[in-house]
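So, can you check this one?
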Amino acid sequence: MSPCIDVLTQITAASRALQEVASGLLDDHVRGCVTDAARTDPAHAEEKFAELADTLRRALRL
């Protein structure tokens, strides 16, 4: 394999690893911050839901 292909393979692996980290952080945020806000403070929950929707739009590039 050429060095270029090796570098591209490493970049792909690193990108996938970062996506997994992002997915875990999103899961933690929804299960923790958003759920807690929904239970305890409806006004704060609206903020958290808006923040979540914005984050998903950016992640999905909508």
Observations:
- Residues 2 and 8 are 10 Å apart (CA to CA).
